[in-house]
Amino acid sequence: MRMMGLIPAVVALFISGAANAQWAEFVDRADHFTVNFPGDPAKSDLSYKTAKGTTLPAHVYAAQDQRGRYTMTVVNYANAPDELASAIDDAAAAVRAKGAVKYDGTGMLDNHKSQRITVETPAQRRLLAEILVSMDKRLYISEAETALNAPPPAQYQASLQVLDDEGVRIRYRSVGSTERVR
User: Fold this and answer.
1) Where residue 5 falls among pLDDT bands split at 50, 70, 90?
2) DSSP structural state of residue 180
């Protein structure tokens, strides 16, 4: 009898392992980042409007799995460096506007200042966002949207890395420093 109760648990573990097995590291050297996606993301071009009204070139990388949708938006601020100081705050305000904020805090991703936000949307979805700016004037907006009853997509959120021109992860010794950890 006890064995019959164990079989569904083993099957559930096998299925959940198989569902997560399709996740893989995605690298985009042109936009200087790597992140784990559930399969190859679709890439699209976007005109990103800043809070001051400047239009900047951006790319959106998007993928989906049975749990949700995962997007990485990369905005090039090279033509608007004076607006870079408020880029994280402006992007964070747009994320907060999507629903009820459950977590909102400053984070440090490889000592790049970042903003981490969790929002529950009116559609009963959980949105996890990580927003940061790199030294080469790019704004990164990582978003994972899943059902409230699904496990948070930690493998997506924790996988973001900013890369240099050679494709090497950029990790700074301290906040605001340009000295890298090797």
Assistant:
1) low
2) B
> Among residues 64, 85, 68, which one has the least CA distance to residue 139?
85
> What pLDDT, on the 0 to 100 scale, is given for residue 15?
47
Domains and CATH numbers, the chain: 2-162 (3.40.1000.10)
**What is the pLDDT at residue 24?**
93
How many alpha carbons fall within 13 Å on the CB side of residue 150? Answer: 19
Helical ranges in the chain per DSSP H: 2-20, 87-96, 154-157
Across residues 44-54, what is the average pLDDT? 95
The mean per-residue pLDDT over the stretch 64-74 comes to: 95
Question: At 36, which amino acid appears?
Answer: N
CB 89 within 8 A of CB 121: no
CA distance 76 to 168: 19
- What's the pLDDT score for residue 173? 77
Sheet holding 33-38, edge to edge: 23-28, 33-38, 161-162
Q: Report the chain's terminal Cα–Cα distance, integer Å.
A: 56
Distance CA 62, CA 72 (A): 7
